[in-house]
Amino acid sequence: MTDILFSSWGGVVTDNRGRPEAERKPPAALQLPLEFDKERKIKAFLGWDGIAIRDPDVDLLDLTRAYLEAVQKESCGKCTPCRVGTRIMASILNRICDGQGRPEDLEKIRSLGETIQKSSKCNLGQTGPRPVLDALTHFRERFEEAIASKRKIPRGEYKVKVTAPCMSACPSHLPIVNYIELIKEGRFLESLAAIREATCLAGVLGRVCIRPCEDNCRRGLVDEPVSIKWLKRFVADYELEKRKHPETKKEAVRSEKVAIIGAGPAGLSCAYYLALKGYPVTIFEKLGEPGGMAAVGIPDYRLPRDILRYEASLVQELGVEIRYNTQVGKDITLSQMFEQGYKAIFIAVGAQTNTPMGVEGEDKGYKGFIPGVFYLLEINLGRDPYPEGKKVVVVGGGNVAIDCVRSSFRIGKPDVNLVYRRTKKEMPADRVEIHDAEEEGVKFHFLCNPVRILAEEGKVVGVECIRMELGEPDESGRRRPVPIKGSEFVIETDILIPAIGQAIDLSFLEPQDGVKTTKRSTISVEEGTFKTSREGIFSAGDCVTGPDVLVRAAGHGKRAAEKIDLFLRGLEVKVSEEERLEALVEKIKVFNKEEKVGIPGGTKRAMLKLLPPETRKWVFDEVEEGFPLPVAQKEAERCLRCVRIGLFAV
Asked: Among candidates 615, 624, 620, which has minimal Cα distance to 230?
């Protein structure tokens, strides 16, 4: 942005001071949003990679003082340079701001800052002094003038955000650095308690999260990312193995009842945090057990049902009632919920139906043609969807497609194939799941796509496919698959499973409910508040975003609970300051994939032990063993503790 007067972000200095607006250059490495919110603009930002000044009147000395105090507050105290050094730097700056500075103070600050950067054990100390040193280098005259004039500098109010690359990438913003540090110290139940401040599904996410945190782990720039997901699973499993029970502090009971539609990740999360706030909550669930698509869409070998049931039981222990086998729209309507005294409704239905492939014959009702979500639903309910079928072809490249092929072996199908229109590199499924499917013997057919279903006597006997080649990138950023004319071929099969996408069934909504939907058949909500067009009705999860990852649905469920609480208390329902800060640091970007970390590597990440392919492929037992205690602690020690401080002047 050309309105930035000075930036040292990423070590690249952009100095527009004194330049006419037309000649100003934007910072090369920084995207600093203009607005903090609708009422306030961002005047300056100090953080882990430098400084950015937009308003010439901002008091840089007060800014650096506030920033250093924030760094000092976050120092874990385990190494002397950061613990003691930042405290001394902060006291010197306080002395200068109190009008008692001495000329030699600036050299002391510089020397201390450089020492802390070089000798601190964790990334807080290694990055903490950087903006202060940049301020001293490029605005030294302001510091010298403050010392010479002996003027007192009043304190301003600033917004501070503590973050880390992994935490910023997490859709639920779990306190990753904190819970890993507690594992390192052997405080396993405290680690789990820290996780439960952000999600009530630690054991679930410790197994099936897509782990964007690990893609943003700075340890991965040295050797391999920390096994963040599996460490979460470790503390969740530890509680069960030791037969401990979580201690929860529930607020005083309130009178306002809340109804939740769907006991999936979003619904359970919303119910948990509302119950902690004292609200009586009832969940209406179509299935006969909790978990929604996590229960019937994810196979037991990945997510054992007892883990899901246990974490749902913790929600129920807070007083939440789950009414199973209750179909909203048939057994009860939204209007009836309000008539029965519910003051707020949260809609959290999952993506429980399929997206059509658009190929010839899929609407004919052939036996053996089974959409992926229904295939997995039947299997997870303990039934073989088509017992006479022995050869399976699944179409798709996501996790549902991989779950379908791997589950097929486990119900006794000996010949299992996956057809995907791009290459393995473009598959959106989890890399680990793809690797495990390959080990188990799934046959992959890349760069081909179905065009026609072949049937005899009303039964699938094969699928005609066409070869593809990759053209220019499409809106997803992946190269668009283009059919190769005349390259058609046939794969014989008696079961064909489309798994190219999921869709939301909103048929339970009635016109009188007043809930607006989108062209994509999702529920329309106000961004950031989860409010629908009908007062008192909120929504989040897949029914708002479209088919998405479990961790985001869980995180949105928690955030929606906070908004429902504001509504029921008669307060303004708005985005919280913490949410604004999260969004801002995501835009600024906490993780730099090109960073040279500068420490020796060579320590491989710990991996879970996996059952051998020929053993696991025929059973629904969990395929992975959790970490033993010593392995978990050793893996936690690989964390670089990449805590970063960002300070906004608004």
From this structure: 624
Q: Do residue 401 and residue 484 come from a single domain?
A: yes
pLDDT digits (tens, 9 = 90+) for 158-186: 999 999 999 999 999 999 999 999 999 99
pLDDT of residue 114 exceeding 90, the answer is yes
Question: Which tokens hold the place of 419?
Answer: 């057809």
User: Token pair of 385, please?
Assistant: 């969807």
> Does the residue 650 lie in any domain?
no
Nearest-5° angle of CA 71, CA 72, CA 73? 90
What count of other Cβ atoms lies within 10 Å of the Cβ of residue 625?
Answer: 11
Decide: pTM greater than 0.90.
Answer: yes
CATH number at residue 15: 1.20.1440.230
619: its two tokens: 């059973």
Query: How many domains, in total, are found in the chain?
Result: 4
Residue 622 is assigned to a structural domain of this protein: yes
In a domain, 359, yes or no: yes
CA 417 to the chain's CA centroid = 31
pLDDT tens column, 482-539? 999 999 999 999 999 999 989 999 999 999 999 999 999 999 999 999 999 999 999 9
Considering the domain architecture, whether residues 552 and 615 belong to the same structural domain is answered as no
Tokens of 438: 């390959």
Query: Do 40 and 116 fall into the same domain?
Result: yes
Per-chain mean pLDDT for the chain:
95
Q: What is the rounded distance in angstroms from the CA atom of residue 635 to the CA atom of residue 231?
A: 8
359 plus 317 within the same structural domain:
no
Domain membership of residue 542 (yes or no) is yes
Structural domain of 66: 6-156
DSSP 239: H
Query: Which residues lie below 8 Å from residue 258, measured CB to CB, with a gap of 6+?
Result: 271, 274, 279, 280, 281, 282, 342, 343, 344, 345, 346, 564, 568
Q: What is the 3-state secondary structure (H, E, C) of 525-550?
A: CCCCCCECCCCCEEECCHHHHCCCCH
